Amino acid sequence: MNARANPWLLSTPALLVYAVFLIAPLLMVFVISFYDFKFMGGMQPTFIWKNYIQVFSDHYYHQIFLRTYGVAILVTLACAVLGTFEAYVLSRMRNPWKGLFLMVVLGPLLTSVVVRTLGWALLFGSTGLISKTLMAVGLASRPVSLMYTDLGMGIALTHVLVPFMVISVWASLQRINPATEAAALSLGASQFTVMRRVIVPQIVPGILSGSIMVFAMAASAFATPAIIAGRRLQTVATAAYDEFLNTLNWPLGAALAVLLLISMVIVLLAANRVVERRYGAIFN
Amino acid sequence: MSYLVLNGLSKRYGDMVAVDSLSLSVEQGEFISLLGPSGCGKTTTLQMIAGFIEPTAGSIVLAGRDLSRVPANKRGLGLVFQNYALFPHMTAAQNVAFGLEMQGLGKQERIRRAGDALEMVGLAHLADRHPARMSGGQQQRVALARALVIKPSMLLLDEPLSNLDAKLREEMQLELRAIQRTVGTTTVLVTHDQSEALALSDRIVVMNHGRVEQVADPYSAYEDPVSRFVGGFLGKANVFAVEAAQHEGQACARIGEAHVALDGRPMPIGQVIVRPEKITFGEASASALPGKMRARVFQGNHWLCQVETSVGEVLVIRQNDGIPVPPEGSAVHLRWHAPDMRPVEAARKGLAS
Fold it and tell me: With an 8 Å Cβ cutoff, are A202 and B102 in contact?
C-alpha cells in the first residue's frame, strides 16, 4: 500500500462496475456497428462502414436526426423560458408557499415517465380533453389530435424535463445577492429592467447548464417519443430500438446509437466550453 | 425648513415595533449617523427612506417633497450596501455607468462621468475589471462611485465599512469623509460601530429598541450622554450611584469611600457616568476611591486597567505617556474631577418633571 496506489485501490469496486456495465456494453455496441447484417443469415462479424454509409446516405435517417435535434432544441428553449420564469417566481414566494410550490414543480420527478406520458396521451387524443375544449370554445371545428405529432411530443417532453431546468436555475438564483436588485432599483431601474439587466445575466450560467441537461435528455429520450410520437414519427432513440428489437438489425441500430452518442458529446463539450470561457472569469 | 424631515416615522410588524415614531431633521450637506445595536431599527429607518420598506405611520419629506408615494426607483437616492451589491456580471466602469444609463444619458457622457467617478475614488486603473477580481475595499469604492455618479439628492450608507478589516476601515473612514465633504451630498449612515459614527458624522442619532435615545454632535454625545444606554454604547463608561454628602463643611458627591468636592456645581442625583480615561491614579485622600488593581492590559498607546473597588469594578484607561501604571495586585486610589461626573437617566428625569 502506498499513497499513489491507494486512490486506485479504493476506487476499484466502482471502476469495476463501470467497466463491466457501462464501458464494455458501449464498446460492444461500437464494435457491432461495424458488423454486417444479412436478412437470412443474421449478424456477420466483419469490419465494414456499410451501416454508417446507410445512415448518412438515406434521407429517411436524415429526417430522423433532424427531428430528434429539432425537437430537442425547441424543448430546450421552451424549458429555458418556462423554467427560468418558474424558478424566479418560486424564489420570490413567501415561505409556506415556497416549499409547497417547489414540491409541486418537482413532484413529476417522483412519478414514472411512462405514467406521466400516458397522462398526456389521454389529453392529446382526438377525443381527449384538449380536443373537446377547443371544440367547445369554438377554436376548432373538427377534433384535434396532438398524438403522433412533433408538437405533442415537444409539449410532453417539455413537461417531463422542465423540473431539471427549474432546479438548475433555482441553484443560481440562490447565489444572487438580493441587494443587487435593490441597488439597481435605487439607481432608477424599473422592475423590468432589473430583471433584464441584473437578474437574468446573473443566472445565465444556471440557464445554460440546465439547457445542457435538458437538451441531452430530450435528444436521447425514449419513453415519451415512443408513446406520443409512436412508430410513425421516429426519433434516433426509437429508431435504434426498432432496429435492435423489431428488425433485429443490430449493426444498424448500433450505428444509430453511436452516432447519437458522438453528436451529443460534441454538442455538450462545445456548450460547456462556451460557458467556461464566457462566465468562468466572472463567477468563480 | 430642513432638507430631510422624518416625522413620526413608525414601522410595526404585527405586535413588534421596529421603529417607534422617529422624528428627525437633517440639514443639507449634513452627515448623520444612525447608531445602535442590531435590532434597534436603524436599518429599517434607512430602508424606509430608500423606499424598500413602507412605513406604518409618519412621513418622509425630502427637499419639500413628500416621498410617501414615490417608489424606490424614482427617489433618486444613492445607496451603498454592506455587501457592496455590485453587479457581478459587469465591469467596474459598467457598474458605475448603470445609473447614468437609467437616466438616459448618451454613451460618451456615460463613459466620461463614470471615468471621473472612478478617478475620484482612486480606481481609474481598474475600470475594466470585474468585481470578483477586486478586493473588498476596491469593491466598496466602486459601490461608492456608483452611488455618487448619479448626483443623488442624498447618500444612504448601510454599514458600508463593516466587512473591511480594521486598518482598511480606518483608511476608508477618512476617505469617505473627504469625499463627502468634497461633493457635499447629504448623507445618512447606518452603523453599529461607535468609532465609525464618531469619526464620520456631523451628528449622531443613537437608537435603541426603535426609539431615538439622543441626537447630538459626536463630542457632546460622547461627553454628555443623556442615558446610561448612550454612555455605554458610545465608548466605555463607569456608572456610579451618587449620594449627597458633606465633607469638611463642603457639599460633596459621595461614591463609595470617595467624597468628590462639587465646587459650587449642582448636586448630581441618582447615577453618574465617569469615562475611564478621566480617572487617574493618585495618593490616598478623602476624595479618592481606594481599590486594588486586578488586571491591566497594554494596548500600545494606552493601558486598560480593571480596578476592584467597594462600588464594583472600575475601568481606567491611562495614556502610555511615560508615567508608570501600578502593577497588578497593588493598592490604588482613583481620582476624578467633579465636572467629569455626568448625570444620566434618574437625574435628567428628575429635572424634567
Answer: no
Find the CB nearest B89 among A189, A190, A201.
A201
In terms of C-beta density within 10 A (0-12 exposed, 13-18 middle, 19 or more buried), how is residue B196 classed?
buried
Name beta bridge partners: B271.
B241, B344
Q: Find all residues with CB under 8 Å of B90, minimum gap 6, and list them.
A: B98, B130
**Cell 409512436 -> residue:** A230
Q: Does B72 sit within 8 Å of A183, measured CB to CB?
A: no
Tell me, what's the pLDDT at A141? 82
DSSP state of B145: H
What ipTM, to 2 d.p.? 0.83
∠ CA A39-A43-A48 to the nearest 5 degrees?
A: 100
d(CA B96, CA B113) in angstroms, rounded, equals 9
pLDDT tens track for B201-216: 999 999 999 999 999 9
Distance of residue A199 Cα from the nearest chain B Cα, in angstroms: 9
User: CA angle, corner B284, sides to B283 and B289, nearest 5?
Assistant: 110
Does an H or E element contain A184, and which?
helix A178-186
Sign of CA dihedral B34, B37, B41, B47: positive
Chain A to chain B, count of Cβ pairs less than 8 Å apart? Answer: 74
Task: Give alpha helix (H) positions in chain B.
Answer: 42-50, 92-102, 107-120, 136-148, 166-183, 194-200, 218-223, 228-233, 346-352
| Residue A191 region by backbone torsions, left for phi larger than 0, else alpha for psi between -120 and 50, else beta | alpha
What fold characterizes domain B238-352? Answer: OB fold (Dihydrolipoamide Acetyltransferase, E2P) (2.40.50)
To the question of domain B4-233 being in CATH 3.40.50.150, the answer is no
Please count the other Cβ atoms lying within 10 Å of the Cβ belonging to residue A163.
22
Interface test with B, best of A94, A175, A187 (most B CBs within 10 A): A187
Say yes or no for a CB contact (<8 Å) between A182 and B88.
no
Q: Where are the domains of chain B?
A: 4-233, 238-352
Assess contact for B340 and B278: CB atoms under 8 A: yes
Do B88 and B142 touch, CB atoms closer than 8 A? no
Residue type, B140: Q
* pLDDT, tens digit, 9 for 90 and up, residues A87-141: 999 988 888 888 898 888 888 788 888 898 899 888 988 888 888 888 888 888 8
